[in-house]
Design goal:
The protein is an alpha/beta fold. It has 13 helices and 20 strands. Helices cover about 30% and strands about 20% of the residues. A hairpin with an 8-residue loop joins β16 and β17. Bound molecules: pyridoxal-5'-phosphate (PLP).
Length: about 450
């Protein structure tokens, strides 16, 4: 037998890691495979760190969300929120399932077009849309969600120039009982700004007003907030019908449903305290059916859910680089994946599992990433079995926002693979290399020679 490494004993004060109801211990079983594919095999083939996406989970989440709404309300359409994860392979899965595209920039808009989404099934949100991008969207018949008066006036001018009627909705912000209020996007409901914008659109005669939109927040834990949003948008829809003689064809409630991640510092794990999609669907569809519209004039319900549909379909596999003792005796474990890849570790306590058998001995530890940077902390305090150099871990529920907000800082981005429903793995984004990163750089002539 190989001689064990000697580790000197240390005295340590007990560190109150955030305890939850079930004590501090977080792991009882290793996670050795994902969708039947061995973690070790994937890492041997594609390297470490490695992002893994489960096609089966994405499709199951989507179908489950559609079922929750369609069984309660007759007219439902989902639009995939590109910024949540715009890897083309991911977008294509949602589009194959029937989802439209929801984009918040010209770059995302062009990605949706490139993925084959018809222009009239692209929802164009966001505070910045250039004249050129708006022109493209108008010509494609896309659904343009106006964010502010300056954009509204810009569209009036553009519609004259193009001699076309843009299909528009306005984004509305409102008090739904959740604070701080997201009032920086769209037009406010309470102070009458939203209705003023609607009146201007109709009075201009230059646009086709077809919808009302809101996106009241993200990781919303309250179903009541959505019921309130439905009431307020419903009120605007009534006013459009009765005062502006315009019938609203759709109500778009945005996204914001939480995934089952655990918010930093929560007492209960997310899997225990997050409302289900069914509960949100119940609150929203009850509200819609009570607005007083006849069965033949019910508005289409559009949803732009992001994180709830993909978070638990994404995993980050990483390797242990080293262990050390901090000056206060705490154990620190360094992984080869840090906040450069795991942006969401700033607000979630991500579940982390060892990927191999482990001893019964566990300890509170801090998990660091590989960056030479103090902020690179994956978990401030987690109780895990002792991990050795070279051991593998699985970070759970990382499918939303990490593969878009990751940064190329100190380290380059790794491979991303997709496990299809037959258990085959596919590379869907190749690891970056030096050439890729430096490709846009230019060197002024006088800086070329160096002589050290
Ligand atoms: C980000 C965003 C979404 C998706 O939000 P989730 O919280 O991930 O569901 C939907 N609509 C708009 C306008 C957004 O900006």
């Amino acid at each position: 037998m190989k001689k064990m490494l000697y580790e000197s004993p240390s005295i340590q004060k007990l560190n109150g890691g955030m305890m939850n109801k079930f004590g501090t211990r977080t792991e009882y079983e290793p996670v050795k495979q994902i969708d039947g594919v061995a973690v070790q095999t994937m890492m041997a083939q594609y390297g470490s760190p490695l992002f893994v996406l489960s096609e089966r989970t994405i499709r199951r989440n989507y179908q489950n969300a559609v079922r929750a709404f369609k069984t309660r309300y007759p007219k439902v359409q989902f639009a995939w929120s590109y910024k949540t994860n715009y890897l083309n392979a991911v977008c294509k899965i949602f589009h194959q399932e029937g989802s439209w595209a929801e984009v918040v920039s010209g770059f995302e808009y062009r990605k949706a077009i490139g993925n084959g989404v018809p222009g009239n099934k692209i929802i164009f949100n966001g505070p910045e849309k250039t004249n050129e991008e708006l022109e493209l969207a108008v010509n494609n018949g896309s659904l343009i969600h106006i964010d502010h008066f300056d954009e509204l006036y810009q569209l009036i001018i553009l519609s004259d120039q193009l001699n076309k009627k843009p299909r528009v909705a306005i984004r509305v912000n409102m008090d739904t009982g959740i604070y701080p209020m997201w009032d920086r996007f769209g037009f406010n409901y309470e102070n009458g700004q939203a209705f003023s914008a609607l009146s201007k659109i109709v009075a201009s005669g230059k646009m086709e007003l077809i919808g009302l939109h809101c996106h009241i927040g993200t990781f919303m834990l309250s179903t009541d907030a959505y019921a309130t949003a439905v009431k307020k948008l419903g009120d605007l829809a009534w006013k459009c019908k009765t005062q502006l003689n315009t019938s609203i064809q759709y109500i778009d409630l945005g996204g914001g449903f939480p995934s089952a991640n655990t918010l930093r510092g929560s007492f209960l794990p997310g899997t225990d305290n997050v409302p289900s999609v069914d509960e949100f669907a119940e609150a929203i569809t009850n509200g819609l059916l009570q607005l007083g519209f006849g069965a033949d004039e019910l508005p289409l319900l559009i949803l732009e859910s992001g994180r709830v549909l993909i978070d638990d379909a994404g995993y980050l596999l990483a390797s242990v680089i080293a262990n050390k003792r901090l000056s206060d005796g705490r154990r620190a474990t360094i992984l080869d994946a840090g906040v450069n890849l795991l942006f969401t570790s700033f607000w979630y306590d991500h579940k982390i599992s060892p990927a191999q058998d482990f001893t019964q001995h566990s300890e509170d530890m801090v998990l660091y990433g590989p960056l030479c940077m103090n902020i690179d902390v994956i978990r401030q305090s987690i109780n895990l079995p002792i991990l050795n150099r070279g051991d593998k871990v699985v970070v759970h529920k990382v499918g939303a926002y990490n593969m878009t907000q990751w940064m190329q800082f100190i380290q380059m981005r790794p491979n991303v693979i997709l496990i299809d429903e037959q258990g085959q793995t596919h590379l869907v984004r190749a690891a970056e290399n030096l050439q890729y990163v430096e490709q846009p750089e230019r060197m002024p002539e006088h800086l070329k020679p160096i002589d050290l």
